[in-house]
Specification:
The protein is mainly alpha-helical. The protein is built from 43 helices and seven strands. It is 60% helix and 4% strand. Strand 6 and strand 7 (507-510) form a beta hairpin. Helix 32 (647-664) runs antiparallel to helix 33.
């Protein structure tokens, strides 16, 4: 074939040319558009659209076109294969150029054409398209199809439910479900509503999410709405789009008449009937299914079609219903606090129980069992197939063992039922089915997206997974302007799901954990490691840059937005840290990430994470690295260690950070580290050592106009004056700290100065003012996920209340303060030891040991929210 000429050919010109060309076996007979439509088995309007360039044939229809042109003699006798390939190539190029989903059009199959060309020509009486192939479970060649018997075979396809008698006399049967359908009542209601108003509804979802069972359940509830029958066509067994219409004809149990195409016979069959067709598992024949559904609904308005697929048909009039997973406990904390009734309300837990009782009819779970089941369902993200495969392991494993072995989903979930379809016998085979239907670029993007953890944004995917324009041509190249279409295609095929932000301004994309694990395995299987390592490096650098930009907002009024962003991306940041620490040449990326995360660990009370990662990245860099990132990491390590009660190690980190900051001329970081060292000395009672440090910190901050650091250092100076019992001076310094924090709109840092102001006022005998300050500190502490700031405020509030003889309230607050101190450090002592011990002594003397213990236990049982409310209202 002349590549240059074929590249300029347009499909509509070629189709029109071949149709209009005199046929070799009957030169006087002209083929009209309506004749071609009848032979191909489509509407004449479709052929008109092909020849006008408004539409492109699907691969299955293109095969039929080529068969017609070949057997009717419209291809040149000596160049038939060349012309067929020219037409195929033209359609392929235009299809891929127009594609909104980046689906690759298959290449021309020369072997298929040769096999088809070997079939003897048909006479007019024995037209190639008057016969029809029977339904087949495997891939048949065109020759085998054309040689097959004319009489249709009775299909073994499943029909829906109960027997329905009507005037036409046909009988339909719904497959009897062996287990009770669980949950999804609101989804069923939505689907029923959609079916009453739309003639085409598509249930779309990932593999194993339960689309078929859901469709059957909905259909069984609507049987009375379709007096002419409900039919289920299991397209999973149709491996070649060409055989879709023959399969439906065979499944309906009707015979084709000579001269009629399969689709024409099907249209005659449904004409005037109010029926429901269920096209199950359309994803691998989606183009043909879309065209077939469109032609049926255009010809028969009373017909309703319900499809199940991993992607929609994407045609006019289609109502797309995205089936969500079963509901499951999404929060560990909520799950631990749930009662048995609350846990059993989750659909995934109900489904697990239903499947477990089918194996063990007398299974009666305890609360602990239900908590384990809830955790298993959470890990499996509410996917019914995954849950059913996990339940199958109960014959040899306990719930605890199943929970522990879910670390590798693809190898553990491999115990499907023998009578299930192959793609449903293991979780991996279910994903294989979807993966094999993807184009090469879609598969490549899915593999690359497995580098993300906890979701990603479009900007992150573009930065990490694509290459900028102008880079050399490579087989594994995804250009930035291609990525949006590829991402859209994977979303349409239910391999990616989307969550919209609360304000509706942003989208976040997620892979189910099983699909992410699958993509990661495929990524590791790639023969060349270099592109894989480049991918992870780009991922780590992207999130390091994001973190640097976020930190600039942390000490401003945008702190809450900054924290939300880092919470969303924390899983990705953790993945980047893990990768960097495994790479000898990329450990500095890990150091940068950890040094910029310390404030997040502190704010979110992830102190153990902070200690672990900061120690690891500093140790991995060998000795004491001489860089700004190292100085910052040492400072962050000192802060986290100090808050967690490890003051000796905190002192060492702070000292090294001070030395390195001086050496590198990092003024703001030096002021912060000096302040940290001063707090450590104040905590130890070493006020003389603390004073020069805190003074220098204040002076540096004033000198470089670093208002945030200045406000923090003034707070430290006020704490020093409290220790020196100079309460008036302390109040002056602390009020200036409050004023500066308010002026830069950093209300979050105000809890510390307010707590110190409360203690100063208390020591001056201003109890009412003291209560006001302590309550302000408690109110602000609510924004912190941790409890170390809250514990200081309620301890001070308890001491002030004790002076007013509110002993019962004091007992509750002291008990809560102890609980929250121990939550972040088992060795943490009271902040005001002398005053704390005196208050406890007075409470015990007034209430007695029994009542004190009862109130103490009450405090231990109250949630953080209830303690805060109690403290603010007391």
């Amino acid at each position: 074939m002349d590549e240059q000429n074929s590249s300029k050919a347009w499909p509509h010109d070629l189709i029109s040319k071949f149709r209009s060309r005199p046929a070799r076996n009957n030169p006087s007979k002209k083929m009209r558009q309506v004749d071609l439509a009848k032979l191909v088995g489509v509407d004449s309007r479709t052929v008109q659209q092909w020849e006008n360039g408004d539409r492109i044939p699907s691969p299955a229809n293109l095969k039929r076109l080529i068969q017609v042109f070949l057997y009717e003699g419209h291809f040149l006798e000596t160049n038939g294969k060349r012309e067929a390939e020219e037409l195929w190539t033209a359609v392929k190029k235009l299809s891929e150029a127009r594609s909104a989903t980046n689906r690759e059009f298959p290449a021309f199959d020369a072997e298929w054409f040769d096999t088809m060309a070997d079939v003897p020509a048909f006479t007019d009486e024995d037209s190639a398209y008057s016969a029809r192939p029977p339904h087949t479970n495997g891939l048949q060649t065109a020759a085998a199809t054309l040689r097959s018997a004319r009489e249709p075979s009775r299909s073994s396809a499943n029909f829906l439910g109960r027997k329905i008698d009507h005037a036409a006399g046909w009988q339909n049967y719904l497959p009897k479900e062996r287990s009770r359908f669980v949950g999804r009542s609101s989804s069923l209601s939505e689907l029923r509503t959609a079916l009453t108003g739309c003639s085409l509804v598509s249930i779309v979802g990932s593999g194993g999410i339960g689309k078929t069972a859901f469709a059957i359940e909905a259909a069984s509830e609507l049987a009375s709405s379709y007096p002419d029958g409900i039919w289920l066509f299991e397209f999973a067994s149709v491996n070649e789009p060409l055989f879709l219409s023959p399969f439906v004809l065979s499944a309906l149990g009707i015979q084709n008449h000579s001269g009629h195409h399969d689709r024409e016979s099907i249209l005659r069959f449904v004409s005037g009937k109010k029926a429901l067709f269920i096209f199950d598992n359309c994803e691998h024949v989606v183009d043909e299914a879309a065209e077939f559904a469109e032609s049926l609904l255009r010809s028969e308005p009373a017909l309703t079609i319900l499809t199940t697929s991993r992607e929609s048909l994407n045609i006019d009039g289609e109502y797309v219903f995205r089936l969500p997973p079963l509901t499951y406990p999404e929060s560990d904390g909520i799950q631990a606090d749930c009662s048995m009734n609350e846990l059993e309300a989750f659909e995934a837990v109900q489904f697990f129980m239903e499947k477990a009782r089918s194996m063990f009819p007398h299974f009666q779970p305890s609360l602990r069992d239900l908590q384990l089941i809830g955790d298993i369902c959470k890990r499996l993200e509410g996917i019914p197939l995954a849950i059913e495969l996990a339940v199958a392991r109960m014959n040899i494993l306990t719930l605890e063992q199943i929970q522990k072995r879910l670390a590798n989903l693809l190898t553990f979930l491999t115990s499907g039922k023998r009578n299930a379809a192959l793609r449903q016998q293991t979780l991996k085979s279910a994903i294989d089915w979807s993966y094999d239907l993807l184009s090469g670029k879609e598969q490549l993007l899915l593999r690359r997206l497995s580098a993300f953890s906890g979701g990603f944004t479009l900007e992150a995917a573009e930065a990490v997974c694509s290459c900028p324009r102008g880079m050399p041509k490579r087989h594994d190249k995804i250009e930035t302007d291609q990525l949006l279409d590829l991402l859209s295609s994977l979303t349409n095929k239910s391999l990616i799901y989307i969550r919209t932000s609360e304000d509706g301004l942003a989208m976040r994309y997620f892979l189910l954990e099983s699909i992410r694990e699958y993509g990661s395995e495929k990524l590791q299987d790639e023969a060349v490691a270099e592109p894989r390592e480049t991918l992870f490096k780009r991922h780590a650098r992207y999130y390091n840059t994001l973190l640097v930009h976020a930190e600039k907002k942390f000490r401003t009024s945008e702190r809450e937005a900054c924290l939300r962003e880092i919470r969303r991306e924390y899983a990705n940041l953790s993945e980047a840290l893990h990768w960097a620490c495994r790479q000898t040449e990329n450990k500095t990326i890990g150091l940068h990430i950890a040094s910029n995360l310390y404030w997040f660990w502190l704010h979110e009370s992830r102190l153990n994470d902070g200690v672990l990662w900061l120690r690891r990245v500093l140790d991995d860099c060998g000795g004491r690295p001489n860089s700004e990132a190292a100085a910052k990491a040492l400072h962050g390590q000192g802060v986290v260690l100090f808050v967690s009660g490890q003051t000796e190690d905190a002192w060492d980190s702070a000292a090294h950070s001070i030395g390195l900051s001086r050496e590198l001329g990092l003024s703001s970081l030096l002021a912060s580290s000096l302040r940290l060292m001063a707090f450590i000395h104040i905590h130890r009672g070493q006020l003389g050592e603390a004073e020069p440090l805190v003074k220098e910190s204040v002076e540096i901050s004033r000198g470089v106009l670093d208002h945030w650091n200045l406000a923090g250092s003034l707070h430290a100076y006020g704490k020093l004056k409290i220790g020196q019992e100079q309460y008036e001076e302390a109040i002056s310094l602390l009020q200036e700290s409050v004023h500066i924090f308010e002026s830069i709109q950093d209300k979050w840092e105000l809890s510390g100065p307010y707590e110190s102001l409360g203690y100063s006022a208390f020591k001056l005998g201003q109890v009412q003012q003291s209560l006001k300050y302590f309550k302000q500190s408690v109110a602000i502490s609510q924004i912190y996920s941790g409890t170390w700031i809250l514990s200081r405020g309620i301890e001070g509030l308890a001491i002030a209340l004790c002076s007013k003889q509110f002993y019962a309230d004091t007992a509750i607050l002291l008990g809560a303060a102890k609980k929250y101190r121990e939550a972040f450090s088992e060795s943490a002592a009271p902040y005001y030891p002398a005053e704390h011990d005196q208050a406890l002594h007075l409470v015990r003397a007034s209430l007695g040991d029994q009542e004190l213990n009862d109130l103490w236990k009450l405090a231990q049982s109250l949630s953080k929210e209830r303690i805060v409310a109690f403290a603010l209202e007391v």
